Amino acid sequence: MLRFSIVIPAYNEEAYLPRLLDSIDEAREKFSGGANQIEVIVSNNASTDLTAEISESRGCRTAYVTKRTIGAARNGGAAIAKGKILCFIDADSAIHSETFNVIDRTIKSGPYIAGATGIYLERLSFGIALSYLIFLPMPLIFGMDTGLIFCQRKDFEAIGGYDEERLYAEDVKFLWTLRRLGQSRGQRLVRLKGVKALGSTRKFDQHGDWHYFAMGLKALIGFLTGRQNDREIADRYWYKPER
């Protein structure tokens, strides 16, 4: 069994996917266990652009997922994965060159069920900075973060993977469920240090640097009240973007 599988959910990501794959190639080359211990899976979620062609040309394995939810795309990639440790990263991101080494050491050294790298934003403005601050309580209080998320395959399977029915916040539920499983075993989530992934600001570029205060609040209310399948929010922000 391979050591790592990194899964990239992708819908029409021809503009961003090469940047991410370049960063993964660099991190693979620096992995102490050998680059051949890491496979890259692009989970093509019904793209109509060159996403699949880029995946194939770069030597990635490609999962073809027709169900248009992000959770289904993540699960579709995991379903063909051969790695012991599963990693998930958005296609518009980029990872640190030491990511796999740090994850490997962390899994071996502590009572951790899962973790995340955190992010640094590719650009900042006052509006973006304030929007970012809204989410700080989650990693500080619960240990849940974003960026590249990782867990062991056995734990992914134990919780049934990502919720494919959610239109958004499936990643929050995923980590929350892993957190609860870990608590029953004396394990916890971990926020890695020194290997933050790039956090894309393309949604701010598209919707404006202050849009999160209206959209984010509405999405949060929907998540907390069980209306996480709000199609209007999901389509505008995740499923029918201009790309």
Features:
single chain, alpha/beta, Spore Coat Polysaccharide Biosynthesis Protein SpsA, Chain A, two-stranded parallel sheet, 11 helices, 9 strands, 43% helix, 19% strand, globular
Written account of the structure:
With 243 residues, this protein is an alpha/beta fold. The chain has one domain: Spore Coat Polysaccharide Biosynthesis Protein SpsA, Chain A, CATH 3.90.550. Strands 3-2-1-4-7-5-8 form a 7-stranded mixed sheet, sandwiched between helices. The radius of gyration is 17 Å and the shape is globular. The termini are far apart.
Offer a quick outline of the entry.
The chain is α/β, with parallel strands linked by helices and 243 residues long.
Judged by helices, strands and strand pairing, the structural class is alpha/beta
Which CATH-level-2 architecture? Answer: Alpha-Beta Complex
Average pLDDT confidence is 91
Q: Output the CATH homologous superfamily.
A: Spore Coat Polysaccharide Biosynthesis Protein SpsA, Chain A
Q: Report the span from N to C terminus.
A: 36 Å
Number of helices in the DSSP assignment: 11
H and E order = EHEHEHEHEEHHEHHEEHHH
Output the radius of gyration: 17 Å
Strand order, main sheet: write it out.
3-2-1-4-7-5-8
Return the CATH class.
Alpha Beta
- Beta content comes to 15-25%
What form results from the Cα inertia axes? globular
Number of domains: 1
* Total beta strands: 9
What kind of sheet is the major sheet?
A: 7 strands, mixed
**Would you give the CATH topology?**
Spore Coat Polysaccharide Biosynthesis Protein SpsA, Chain A
State the share of residues found in helices, binned by percent.
Answer: 40-55%
